[in-house]
Amino acid sequence: MGSTSARLLTLLGLLQSRPDWSGAELAERLAVTGRTVRNDVARLRELGYPVSAVRGPGGRYRLGPGARMPPLLLDDAEAIAVAVGLRRTTATAGFEEPARSALTKLEQVMPDRLRRRLASIRDASTSGPENTDSNVEDPAVDPAVLAAVADAVRDHQGLRVDFRDQRLELEPYRLVAWQRRWFLVAREPRTGEWAPYRVDWLRLRTPGGRRFTPVPFPGDVTDFTVREVARAGWAVHARVTVDAPADEVLARINPAVGTVEALADGRCVLVTGGDSVEVVAVWIGMLGLDFHVDGPPGLVEHLRVLAVRYAGAVPVPVPVPVAVPGAGPVAAPGTPT
């Protein structure tokens, strides 16, 4: 390899790219001897980069956390991937400004060839709207709240929160991102019940709750979130009675739409929800089955409006005259007899 400084930067980049390297692997990648690798590691330590080593055949090296942040060395594909990802994040409610600021800083330190490539990707492409399944704007999530919740999950620290009209103490378990929203899956120690809580609806209270010993979650946390959000995670909820067996309804819906409860008379109830009555009405209509809705009032009224609108959207069929044997000629509708 070329100069020592170039080799040190390459070595630093390798140590950043994965957690653990053997001395032999580093020597092969750098095309140097094991002794040179050891000398270069010593130089990185002198510069303040905390490279730890495990003695043994070939030795093993790891870049640990330290008092100073090493330069972030990305190859061309990695730098473009980060930049494109940040550009998409600028469309995420609550993260627009941090993502835009980080993208600006990244573009400033990019080599000219990468800035030109990123510019060509930007100028040659466009993106459709992120939110195409709702007539309600995506909720903004405070990055500070999201970070505080993630810290509480990591540290097994209880949370005291205001959630809509409730004041709760929660044991946070996992954050789940779904449908451009963040949900905290948590256990309420008072009742032992698990539930997903929309992070944009959480208001953290200080001081926080008590530290706790985590209770294992009973099942798959993602499946649980998708299923339970239909009951408690939307602005509008409805229980729809469907004139069909539960199995038929389950075969027609995505699990994200809601849950299905069988009834003794062979029908079932679809428990569903959405950000607005318009969204819920669309999902119900896509069933292709007869249904009955008793509430909420806003949804009932919207379905009445849709019924009139759809009925007026198609021409009324004209009855076709039917000839009766022995009755003589049949006059066309509207013809005097």
Detailed description of the structure:
Pfam families: HTH_11, WCX, WYL. GO terms for molecular function: DNA binding; DNA-binding transcription factor activity. InterPro entries: CBASS_pafABC_assoc_protein, DeoR_HTH, HTH_11, Tscrpt_reg_HTH_DeoR_CS, WCX_dom, WH-like_DNA-bd_sf, WH_DNA-bd_sf, WYL_dom. Keywords: DNA-binding, Transcription, Transcription regulation. This protein has 337 residues and is of the alpha+beta class. It has four domains: 4-63, Winged helix-like DNA-binding domain superfamily/Winged helix DNA-binding domain (Arc Repressor Mutant, subunit A, Orthogonal Bundle), CATH 1.10.10; 83-124, no CATH class; 143-219, SH3 type barrels, CATH 2.30.30; 236-311, Alpha-Beta Plaits, CATH 3.30.70. It contains eleven helices and twelve strands. It starts with a helix and ends in a 26-residue tail after the last helix.
